[in-house]
């Protein structure tokens, strides 16, 4: 079994810090190495932090001293910045069906009426895209055309794995979608095999056809990002969302260069959980390039973490019976969360104001301990408030172990061209790097108003999720300052139905849409496969955003 017990709360925006005795400082092999160890010496953890974040500002010292009193072991936990490369063997270019050089693509020119234009812009010289045709018969996963491979950032030794499935319907005209799981640090192969891909994996390791796959009417790319997640690897690390956005732009640019038959079709980005951070940044990066071959039409975020300051106000209501399900906590625990909220908010405001890791790390640690910790200690599934977490070693879902075992088979890795020695669903090192570089608490919702001026934005949420609950997602969409705020907030939720049966609610105005999906946890397609395919098809068809 490849998923370690310590990854219990990964696969989403983790509550890693809420259960710090299990998550922080106890990561399998990492637990054998003293904090901050270099060679035979063991350094003070604060030295390790300073090396990673730079010199502590004088204004931050009081805050860190306070956190050390409020959260036992705070400095030691914050100093646990680890990033270890994954073991791998890179295959020669001759073993791939196609290799696209970024330098060649960036150098291409088009000509209109005698005027030359650069086909794409952006720093692509360091990037290559390697492509392998995947034989569907070899793995038994769907019958459609498939490609897998790596985006290579040769300058920084980063290699991102992707797997593309063509639409089952009309690939010449159907849109293309990029799917991203969250974590940060969890593989999108989980989304593929557990939620919306063409097959799931059963307990015997056999692929099972998914009739509700999102590639029924769209071609879908599943991407393992950032590096050192899933089949992706690097000798370095990516620990913030903005850095990862450059890789996404390069991947899509080179992919559509190799396969221009997909480049003119509408393109959408969908994802869940920490993708609430990723997607606004990735979309903004793409739209910043005037000359591009990426026809971005919309974005969709499911049960995402986008505006922590607003969303954290809804943890107590969700845990205490105000989200449509019975209370998980007793009144004293609910009161304790209410008492902790003002301090949490003040810390997050400081993070928002400075966007400095020296402010954002304490905010994340304090708020997760205060607002997520009480719920997690109840033993209930943070991804589904209706269930006890029965499989603590596998994100509360045994299916994650089945997926990991399947993707570690030699025949599967060979068919896909995987270059790592082993696959794991989530990488705890990557998760901690994002948390302890301050990325978690940052206000990425501030990018959404500008996106709304250019493309439609969908926010959807399964209403049984706790970790990125529907109350918080609805709250931040209504708090967002944008030109259409008044009109959007005046719209009431209406039934979202399939065959006259309501499976959720929707409100939409201008380019902004919110959906509440009934009886679904953090992973909406897992719990509501037919409903999720219905709203997905209706969304990419433009029902809520085309006049």
Give an overview in words:
- The chain is of the alpha+beta class and 547 residues long.
- The protein has a domain at 93-310 and 387-541: Alpha/Beta hydrolase fold, catalytic domain (Rossmann fold, 3-Layer(aba) Sandwich), CATH 3.40.50.
- It contains 22 helices and 21 strands.
- The strands form five sheets. Strands 3, 6, 7, 8, 9, 12, 13, 14, 15, 18, 19, 20 and 21 form a 13-stranded mixed β-sheet that branches. Strands 1-2 form a two-stranded antiparallel ribbon.
- Helix 8 crosses helix 9 and helix 12 packs antiparallel against helix 13 (357-371).
- The longest helix has 24 residues, at 331-354.
- The radius of gyration is 22 Å and the shape is globular.
- It starts with 19 loop residues before the first helix and ends in a 7-residue tail after the last helix.
- Mean pLDDT is 86; it is low at 1-42.
- Residues 1-18 form the signal peptide.
- One of its GO terms (cellular component) is fungal-type vacuole lumen.
| Terminal CA distance | 50 Å
Measured on Cα atoms, how large is the radius of gyration?
22 Å
- What would CATH call the architecture of the domain at 93-310 and 387-541? 3-Layer(aba) Sandwich
**What does the main sheet amount to?**
13 strands, mixed
Keywords:
zymogen; Ser_caboxypep_ser_AS; Rossmann fold; 13-stranded mixed β-sheet; disordered N terminus; serine-type carboxypeptidase activity; Carboxypeptidase; 22 helices; alpha+beta; two-stranded antiparallel sheet; single chain; 547 residues; globular
